[in-house]
Amino acid sequence: MKRLIIISFLIISIQALFGQMKSEAYFGVSGRTDNAKDILEMYDKGYLISAAFGQSDSFFGWNIKTDINLELLYDKVFEYFPSSIALDAAVCDDHGNVYVTGITIIDDEWPFISKIDSCGNYQWCKILIYEDEYNYGWSNDILLNENNEVVILVTLIDDEQPADQINMTHLIGLSDEGEVLWKKPYASRNDYSWIRQPQGNSIMEINNEYYITGKCYWPYPDDTTHWFLRPLFIGIDSTFEEKWILPFAPLDSVFGRAYKSIPLNDSVFLGAGIRKLPNSLDFSLLMFYTIDGEELGYNEILNEQIGPDINSNEIRNIERINDSLFITTSPFGPDFSENPMGELIIDTAANVFNIKSHPNTVSFIPGLIKTYDNNFVIASNIKESNPAKTDIYVYKIDENLNDVPFDPTPLTYDSLCP
Question: Which of 16, 170, 206, 281 is the S-S candidate for 406 at Cβ 3.0 to 4.6 Å?
């Protein structure tokens, strides 16, 4: 496996030597399913890719550490689990420790969290099993808050009542040594009788308060017998008590889901996702709401804004470029599903200023980070000749969607590792 990876990096180094200055990398083994899940910029300006690969009907977690040019430093496979495992999201603390969350199979699927030290070595693992209340569950996102608590966003499922389940979306708090401190549900049917199947995709912390972005099913007020897919936002205070929920545009025909929110200022957030229409056309959706859960409106990115043959586009991830512009990772193309991934440069009015597509790429939610020098690194997947198999494709671009040149600056990596 490592020989294949090293060969790809030798190619990159030769390109840099002869002036083809480009930072990109491929990871994986031919004939195997390799998927990138998340990416972090580490304290040493290297990158950590949280990934997974499928082999012999099982999945294995896989951490990949690279330098600033995406050249491999080392990789570690999660081998301490008794059964299948896949990674979903990761966060790093000031000491170089990484907390990774994902899914493992212990009879059924359950979320887990593991701590990796500054040398990339396993410290501890906690599998979050709640079989007295639920049948299975999975993790969605993770953050490390100002109190040094590790907070995981999870979905827990009761098979006996999946459509009418009371509590599905939860936050679980743990200490930095893996002790479970608390677990709380949000958007509960005990509080909101109309809601069905709420699920969070991502969580952010702003001023010691928390905001979940995701989806739910919600009816029209005059017909509470039919439920429709809606974007969902949840506000949570500093003690992890729910402040409000916002099923977006409940009086309008805005059906769809939200993937991520980012702050526009101290009081207004931008949620990004998809609007689904009855004729199978999907549009990217920009949703605006306040810190108090007040809906402010929305804008759409229509398919014809991207190109004449585009039949679907949706925002899966978003980062700020400057005060007025944003970069998104979005699948768009001529199909009504399974389009390749690409980037859009947009503003809050849903104007599109630049477009770049990457043929044969695929990902549910690509990893997207803004680097210390205001570039962007994206971790996605690319199809092999057998389209059912994928490799990991990671690349660095600037705010104009141009490839970032190879950086010859000498850096010391893993300096916090004893």
Answer: 16
DSSP-derived secondary structure for 79-103: ---SS-EEEEEEEE-TTS-EEEEEE
Q: Tell me the per-residue pLDDT of 338-359, one tens digit each, with 9 for 90 and over.
A: 899 999 999 999 999 999 999 9
Which DSSP symbol is given to 339?
Answer: P
What are the CA-CA distances from residue 186 to residues 109, 191, 198, 244, 270 (Å)?
A: 21, 9, 9, 9, 21
Sign of CA dihedral 210, 123, 155, 170: negative
Residue 374: helix, strand or coil by DSSP? coil
Q: Amino acid identity of 385?
A: S
Tokens 């600037």 locate to 398
The Cα–Cα gap between 385 and 396 comes to 24
396: left (phi over 0), alpha (psi -120 to 50) or beta: beta
Q: How far apart are CA 185 and CA 326, in angstroms?
A: 32
Q: How far apart are CA 344 and CA 284, in angstroms?
A: 11
Q: Which helix (H) or strand (E) holds 181?
A: strand 180-186
**CA-CA distance, 79 to 103, in Å (whole number)?**
14
Whether pTM > 0.85 for this model: the answer is: yes
Amino acid code (one letter) for 39: I
Note whether 139 and 162 are within 8 A (CB). Answer: no
Which residues have C-beta within 8 Å of that of residue 120, sequence separation ≥ 6? 63, 65, 74, 76, 414, 417
Task: Kindly tell me if the per-residue pLDDT of 2 is higher than 90.
Answer: no
